[in-house]
Design goal:
The longest helix is centred in the middle third of the chain and has 37 residues, at about 125-165. The chain is globular, with a radius of gyration of 20 Å. Helices cover about 80% and strands about 0% of the residues. By secondary structure, the chain is mainly α. The protein has 16 helices and no strands.
């Protein structure tokens, strides 16, 4: 069998390129093609739906089997979707609706690729090997996020200065992402091994999802409201209460330094997580919006100060994210973080966050968001979340 070094890093890096475009970069695309913050967060929030619904399609993907072939087809289809998106930026009739349609197609293909990749990983490696290679997969996934959100976005910002055309610059950025993904796809045509085992997941027990899902929703509420609004704050001009950052500033502070902070926090949180530490991590998760309250009150005057703020906020986010684990276990997601279920819990607050920013302004919005952390902690305490954390 081929060494996992030949395919594990590239498989998970390839999956993160479209995911990053959808989850992070798409918001800036909508803003720069003329979308309002409310419209941008509405469209970008809806792009979460394929990832959130992927759990419902898991059985169909498993029934199709031949995960290696599914991965190869999904990657080639994503390359085509990215090429179409790049071409669409040159259309005279291109608008936010076209952008949403093409990104939704990419999101559907990305969700399919992610699910097939996880099943292929489980089929090809034994359980002990999966534990060993999990950290490698996570490292290369985060490296792909930094490349796509950081370097590609910096390149797009530079091209906007050179070309003096927002659409042409975004088109070139999509071509770069498509080219990188095409290299991965071509490599996987020959590098992916045959599935070594017939992976048969255990029978899924019926669960009462209402209470754990609502608990997850409440726990993630402060972060959900901040997920898009933090980028809106960085990118909005000072006349609207934002920091007026360039694409390069956002790419470096949020897409590179922020992602590194999140990765370090997540690694630390996963390493230290125990049920008895639930509240420490839940508190860290709710403290992240406070960083933006400070930045609204005392705007950072340098890229270093901005990067320090985004690093701190993302470090707290990553460290606190494992506190979702007990609720994901109850929802049948196992002990590992199932980000598709987290996306489902974040959907509604993400969608309305742009409208709330327009209605309240950044100062009041982040103050309300930070105060909701207290409501979240109190609600989880009163509904017995601590007791649930000690189940199983």
């Amino acid at each position: 069998m081929r060494s996992p070094w030949l395919w594990v890093p590239t498989l998970f890096a390839a999956g993160e390129v479209p995911v990053t475009l959808i989850a992070f970069v798409s918001l800036l695309m909508f803003l720069q093609v003329g979308g309002s913050p409310a419209l941008a967060t509405l469209c970008c929030g809806c792009l979460f739906l394929p990832s959130a619904l992927v759990v419902m399609l898991r059985g169909k993907v498993i029934n199709l089997s031949r995960y290696r072939r599914q991965i190869q087809l999904a990657e080639l289809a994503m390359v085509v979707a990215l090429m179409l998106l790049a071409l669409a930026f040159t259309w005279s009739s291109f608008n936010a609706l076209w952008l949403f349609a093409l990104l939704l197609l990419l999101s559907l293909l990305s969700a399919w690729h992610g699910l097939a990749s996880r099943q292929f990983y489980a089929c090809t490696l034994r359980q002990q090997e999966r534990r060993l290679w999990r950290r490698v997969a996570m490292f290369f996934s985060q490296a792909a996020v930094i490349f796509t959100y950081g370097l590609v976005l910096m390149f797009v910002g530079a091209l906007q200065v050179v070309y003096r055309s927002i659409r042409l610059a975004w088109g070139q950025g999509c071509y770069i992402a498509a080219g990188v993904l095409l290299l991965f796809a071509l490599w996987h045509l020959v590098a992916l091994p045959r599935e070594a085992t017939e992976y048969a997941p255990g029978r899924q027990q019926s669960v009462r999802w209402t209470r754990p899902f609502l608990s997850l929703f409440v726990l993630m509420l402060p972060q959900s409201l901040m997920f898009f609004s933090r980028v809106l704050f960085l990118f909005a001009p000072s006349s609207r209460g934002g920091l007026g950052c360039t694409l390069q500033d956002v790419a470096f502070a949020q897409g590179a330094v922020g992602v590194i902070g999140f990765s370090l926090g997540l690694a630390l949180g996963r390493g230290l997580y125990e049920d008895k530490r639930f509240w420490a991590m839940a508190v860290a998760l709710g403290l992240s919006p406070c960083v933006y309250v400070v930045m609204v009150a005392v705007p950072p005057q340098s890229l270093l100060a901005l990067s320090l703020g985004t690093f701190t906020a993302q470090l707290l986010f990553g460290f606190g994210l494992p506190s979702c684990s007990p609720f994901l276990r109850q929802l049948g997601g196992g002990r590992r973080l199932d980000l598709s279920l987290v996306s489902a819990a974040m959907f509604l607050p993400c969608v309305v966050s742009g409208w709330l920013v327009e209605a309240l302004g950044f100062g009041a919005f982040f103050a309300v968001d930070a105060s909701l952390a207290l409501v979240s902690w109190l609600t989880l305490w009163l509904t017995g979340a601590r007791r649930e954390c000690h189940e199983r």
